[in-house]
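Morning F.,

Quick status update on the modeling queue. The single chain you submitted on Monday has been processed. Sequence for confirmation:
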Amino acid sequence: MTNTKKVAVVAIGGNSLIKDKQHQSVEDQYEAAKETTYHIADMIEAGWDVAIGHGNGPQVGFILRRSEIANKAEGMHEVPLDVCGADSQGAIGYALQQTLQNWLFQRKINKNVATVITQVLVDREDPAFKNPTKPIGSFMDEAEAKRRERDMNWSVVEDAGRGWRRVVASPQPKEVVELDTVKALINAGVIVITVGGGGIPVIDAGNGDYAGVAAVIDKDFASSLLARQINADLFLISTAVEKVALNYGKPDEKWLDRLTLAEAKQYLAEGKHFAKGSMAPKIQAIIWYLENGGKQALITNPENIGRALKGETGTWIVNE
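Structure tokens below.
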């Protein structure tokens, strides 16, 4: 990367695309993307070059559900999970790309926006493959779950009395396959949407070829890897809350303006402050970024990105 650019990796969560259960349609998601990219346009107007990562959990769930319904009703083939990930990268990338391009055009900012369908290499020997825990797809009765386990080699679990679901591995990301392409685009001044949903998980098939696998990569972990590999000046995680809190939701809740790397590691290790399914992976992703040469990280919600970059809100985590 060149030294004259200020480069940020911005990881946006599912809340940036689906506000609630009443607003899940494609049109609703487009409007939500429009709101989020307005604030990213503020960053670009302030001089940042940006690579955008995003979540895709709900969208992949919708694609799988459509696939299952079509299979039952019409005998259509079901869509493999890695292809669902690719589908979602294209559709979400389209919404983010178009809305951001429109905002930049309105502001007379001459920047192009591009979506890169991105593969992320994982280790075929990752322990996560021996202990799949990430639920995906629809609920099933036990007989259907056991049939798919037998015929399709699925891992299935009973989910708290609500039915049976498929579970897949969530391995660690090792390499962004299209990294050189992403770097070239950023160096050319293009805003890049990449590692969508954590990237499409692929393994080395053993002969130098890549092969897709049924897995889900944490999008914050993949965005952290990207931020390290492009030497980003800032790693920004946009989520549902304005700041990070200790003892979130409890009477002794404490909102944080600033954390050092050492403090972040301490609080994460204590295991009581950050929820495993939400804030904990975000803090871990930032720790890895800062431990590997990252400069500074920020957590805030989309509508406060501009204010947070001015130091007015958000939680800053710094390498001190």
